[in-house]
Amino acid sequence: MNSKETYVLAIDQGTTSTRAILFDQAGTPAGTARQEIASHYPSPGWVEQDAQQIWLSVLGVTASALSQTGVLPEQIAAIGITNQRETTVVWDRATGTPIRPAIVWQSRQTADICEELKSEGHERTIREKTGLVVDPYFSGTKIKWILDHTEGARERAERGELLFGTIDCWLVWKMTGGKRHVTDYSNASRTLLYNIHELRWDDDLLRLLDVPRAMLPEVRSSSEVYGTTVPHHFFGREIPIAGMAGDQQAALFGQGCYERGAVKTTYGTGCFMLMQTEEKAIRSEDGLLTTIAWGLDGGVRYALEGSVFVAGSAIQWLRDGMRLIETAADSERLAAQAGSSQGVYVVPAFVGLGTPYWESGVRGAVFGLTLGTKREHFVRATLEALAYQCKDVLDVMERDSGLTLRSLRVDGGAVRNRELMQFQSDLLGVPVDVPAVSETTALGAAFLAGLAVGFWNGLDELAAIRRTESLYEPRMPEEQAVRLYEGWQKAVRAAIVFQ
Ligand SMILES: Nc1ncnc2c1ncn2[C@@H]1O[C@H](COP(=O)(O)OP(=O)(O)O)[C@@H](O)[C@H]1O
Ligand SMILES: O=P(O)(O)OC[C@H](O)CO
């Protein structure tokens, strides 16, 4: 690092959008560029994206972040990448072209493969080795599906002609001009193929899912120089790519959750609550996942995770599917106007339910409609579903960890919604803490990259950067919160029975 290098560039490739953000040494975003990513729904429950479009969006947002701010490539000390996790890309090593659309984490198209694994009794072994549950969510069955459904693909993968990667890995491959095929511990831990205790690809699991080892990336820590950018893509300079983590783990890092038991929740397309558990991989019997938080300084940290598949995407559905709102921000105005949902419950199980239910066959449902139900009640009920799902997760997390939450650190697109944040605090009965830098996922990736090149010097320095911008305190009487939550539990049970 030299004295001219005053920024770290974070690339946050999320499900809804790709963002490039430049952070200075105080952790302040100097400029942000954003581009939406299209999702395609070729069959009910399937979700796909175009990996080439994702790559081009990274080039586009990086160029606009630089041109908007006037920051020069020479001023960038390092690049950190964070990504929607599990989304699976298989590409041709020689041409760098994906052989099929990327299968997005939300997609249910591998439900049959999962049912087969369960019926053959593999659930327990998979859970023990990977910390995950058998569900179409994770990459392993998606790789198998692609190899099963593309003529000659498995043989080509065995010969090393095809490569697999999650989005982090795909982007590093493209950014380094096909020189580096790497991923980090946090992303590897979401594949269903990685042994999170022994820190290696697991041969038994590879055999079980019929995935050739030759197509898998090398697994590295979350903070080190993996390679440098190809000058003709990145403004004539070789910039070190020095940080990499799945977006939920990066948000945990960016929120300064460096102490055992610290928790954050991110409300993006989905909603993910993670608790940092240091060197201890806690096993959950209640549907939480055990996952690798990050690899740093020669060791790994673990986390307990609750994954909710549909959060902000329910608000997108109100906008694009139901056409009840024009912008996501309208949901706040209408929810305030409604005041309460008047007994309406929306269960947004559009792609099944994750933690703690793990029911991949359930679909969305609405309960409690009356002639008095108006658009604003329906919108409010959809928004409230985000908060109810977080409560489902927090209840099991407290039980499994033996810890009681005192306040919840939050981030992600939907934390702009004050009605949602207040309702979340009311329902959980704890303060909800929104940080000044709401882009904590990107900040986490920047921190990881910056640590690797000496831009920042350690966790103490990073922890001091976080500041609270808004704190929502519980205002609703407890018995009212309990009554509302009981209604939600009934609605979810009914939706599960209906499938
Ligand atoms: N004011 C708002 N109220 C509720 N949801 C919102 C609001 N603004 C954005 N969102 C939701 O947040 C999500 C985008 O959040 P973001 O953190 O950018 O997601 P991702 O990282 O998954 O791409 C979208 O699904 C959008 O519907
Ligand atoms: O796109 P997000 O931010 O909702 O995150 C997606 C998760 O990484 C999926 O596991």
Relevant terms:
2 domains; Nucleotidyltransferase, domain 5; binds SN-glycerol-3-phosphate; 499 residues; 35% helix; Carb_kinase_FGGY_CS; glycerol metabolism; Glycerol_kin; six-stranded mixed beta sheet; alpha+beta; phosphoprotein; kinase; binds adenosine-5'-diphosphate
Side-by-side strand order of the widest sheet: 17-18-16-15-21-22-23
Residue share in helices?
Answer: 25-40%
Total domain count: 2
First-to-last CA distance: 57 Å
Range of strand content: 15-25%
Please state the CA-atom Rg, rounded to the nearest Å.
Answer: 22 Å
How many strands appear in the DSSP assignment?
A: 23
Helical element count?
16
Structural class label: alpha+beta
Family: Belongs to the FGGY kinase family.
Function: Key enzyme in the regulation of glycerol uptake and metabolism. Catalyzes the phosphorylation of glycerol to yield sn-glycerol 3-phosphate.
Enzyme class: transferase
GO molecular function: ATP binding; glycerol kinase activity
Descriptive notes:
The protein has 499 residues and is α+β, with helices and mostly antiparallel strands. It has 2 domains: 241 residues, Nucleotidyltransferase, domain 5, CATH 3.30.420.40; 212 residues, ATPase, nucleotide binding domain (Nucleotidyltransferase, domain 5), CATH 3.30.420. Helices cover 35% and strands 23% of the residues. It contains 16 helices and 23 strands. The strands form 7 sheets. Strands 17-18-16-15-21-22-23 form a 7-stranded mixed sheet. A hairpin with a 4-residue loop joins strand 10 and strand 11. The radius of gyration is 22 Å and the shape is globular. The model has no long low-confidence stretch (mean pLDDT 94). SN-glycerol-3-phosphate (G3P) binds next to helix 9.
